[in-house]
Amino acid sequence: MTDDGTRKGDKPPQLHIWDAAAREFELGTLVDGDETWDLFVVSERTSAELCRGRISFRRDDERYDTDAILVEESEREVLRRAGELPASMLRQLLVSLRPES
Known about the structure:
Elements: E1 23-32, E2 35-45, E3 51-59, E4 62-65, E5 70-72, H1 75-84, H2 87-97
Antiparallel strand pairs: 1-2, 2-3, 3-4, 3-5
């Protein structure tokens, strides 16, 4: 036993919010001023009935991911819904994810 009450070699439990089986799909690009961002949908089946998706904004070494903002019955539906998001909403999401300068 160690001083903190755990046995040697024991690791604390790890929280895995997104499964390693999550799949990425290219959604397109978003032009925001002088910057062009590549957009991806990251989807993951959460149960037999539901699939969730998040939007990933990528440019060079920068990457910003939303939380799960889409929940549908299938991956196909998550991708369809992501494709329906207007550019104005995607820009708002990106602004909310980026650190303030």
